[in-house]
Amino acid sequence: MSKTNLFTKHPSVIRAFIVLLLLGLFIDGNIVTFSLVCVMVFLFMTARAFMTPSKKRVRFFLILAYAFLMSVQLAYCAIAVFSVDSPFIVFCIKKIFATLLILFPYGLERLFTIRNYTHFYVPSAQELSMYTFHEIKENTERIRETLEQLNKSGRVLSPENLSTLISDLPRHDSFRYINNGNLTEEYFALAEESFSDPHVYIVISNTGSPASEMISLFTGKQYNHVSLAFDDTLKTIISYNGGEKLYPPGMNREMLEYFNKKEDSSIMVYRIRAGREQKKRIVDKVREINREGSAYNLIGLVTKHSHKPNIMFCSQFVYKMLKYAGLAYFNKKETEIRPTDFVELDYRRQLEFVYELRLNT
User: To the nearest whole percent, how much of the chain has pLDDT over 90?
Assistant: First the structure.
């Protein structure tokens, strides 16, 4: 079958259209149009990733990279280009760079797929008419899943969520410690009182926060945050988080009301047996991190790398504490652990389910 259509017969026409589009964006674009184009490019490239016959891990990486690039694009436009007064020449240079950033996702796709696959193309009407019923039936489920994912993406990438995520970015730092001393002696007194309880508690949560909803696009999981506690009433619950704009992002004490961001917010509480000395080792390590400082490993969600020992994300922190106390019950690279791994990788049934708490019932 000849795979030719407008996109393959006339590539110069398509290139000219893209150049005109970017030129118009540069000349007359504002923060709203740039943001809309960034989101539309993300959705389009996500759809391409689902429809390209690549391995699942390649698709996952590409979509995660597209989301990261979109966040960078939106943050750059909102913070560096349109929110500050700059000389006209400087403003133009910034705007040119913002315009060129629009092409980065396409370049990334070519980098990862051109070696193994032919160019992605839109089939012609003649080609579509030659598809058999069996082929259409085989692809129906795939198309349905793609549409559902795009629908979910539209909800997650709403202007409200994007605005919240973008406004929160300047508070983060993945290269230096910005959070220290937020856990008080009152907290450590409560933690030490829990030594008589022979368990450590692992809490996975479905919070509905914008960050959690964004992560769920790529993990496909409902629960996207995990915390650690030393008592069953969760008075000592801690994790790495954004600090709820009360504290700097990093290791912070958590409150259950922070988890209640949507109608079906819930938490699942599990426990694992831990001796007094094991709990003390974790508490001492938490005290050390609290003293030295910490930061939330936002970049590490994409790069899978920590620049300093105390720069982590939530699942990385919980796993590291369990491993430090000799309580780790599965093996996985710390920077690749997802919150649901604590339950799904419990092959030897070391965890015991304690309770589920639905925060709106």
Answer: 37
